[in-house]
Amino acid sequence: MKTIRVRELIDFLRRHDAETIYLVGDILDGWRLQKTWRWPPEYNVVADLILSKAAAGARVVYLPGNHDELVREYLGTYFGTIELVDRTIHTTATGKTYLVIHGDQFDVVVKNAKWLAHIGDWAYNFALKTNGTINWFRRRMGRGYWSLSAWAKQKVKGAVSVIGRFEEALALEAKETGVDGVVCGHIHLADMHDRLGIHYINTGDWVESCTAVVEDFEGNFELIRWTQLVPEKTKKKRRGRKSRK
C-alpha cells in the first residue's frame, strides 16, 4: 500500500457493505516495498476487513495495477475467495455494462518510458510529503486542507494533457469493448463524467482524495469522499461496488 490515509479507509470499510467490491489496483506499492519494507499494523486491519467481507459473501475482485504488477503473475486465480483479474465487466442494476480496469495499460508513460514513470512517482511522493508541511502551517492559521500534488495534477499543463489522453484512451477501449462506461483508477484523480461519449468513472485514491465509487440499488453511481472521520452511525449497505487504492 502507498502512504494511505488508513484511518479514513478503515472507517469507510466498517460503515459500508456491498455485494461486489472491486479493488482497482495499486493496493500494494511494490515499487516502494522493493526499497524498504513498511507494513504498519493498521494495514492488517484493512486486509482483515476486506477478507471478512469476502467471507460474509461479498464478491471481491482484485485488478492489479502497475505498482502491484507482481500480482499479475497470478491473474485468473484466486487468493482465498478473492478473484485476481486484469479486467472485468460490471453490470449495473439497470443492465448497463462497465469495463472495470486499473488503467495503467493505457498510460503512454508507463508503457513506453517506465524510467520516467518512476521519476514521476518520486516527484509525486515528494509532493505528498510537502503537503504535510504546507498543511501544518495552514492548520496553524485556521485554514483547511490543501494539496500541492492534487493542484499540480489539475493545473500544470503537461499533467492535464497526460490525464486527457488517458481518459480518451480508456473511453476508446470502452467503446471498442461495447460497454456503456469504464471504471478505472491509476491517475489518482477521482472524476465522473460523460464528455467522451461514454460514462467515465475514476475511483481516485486513498492517499489524498479518500474516494470510492458506489452503486445504489437503483443502479446510480455516486462518488464518495471520506476525508473526515464521522460519528458512529448505522452502517450503509450498497448493491454495487466500492473501489480504493
Describe, in plain words, how this protein is organized in 3D.
This protein has 245 residues and is of the alpha/beta class. It has one domain: 4-Layer Sandwich (Purple Acid Phosphatase, chain A, domain 2). The protein is built from 7 helices and 13 strands. The strands form 4 sheets. The protein has a 5-stranded mixed β-sheet with strand order 6-7-8-10-9, covered by helices on one side. Strands 2-3-5-4 form a 4-stranded mixed β-sheet, with helices on one face. A hairpin with a 5-residue loop joins strand 9 and strand 10. The radius of gyration is 18 Å and the shape is globular. The protein starts with 5 loop residues before the first helix and ends in a 7-residue tail after the last strand. About 2% of the residues have low confidence.
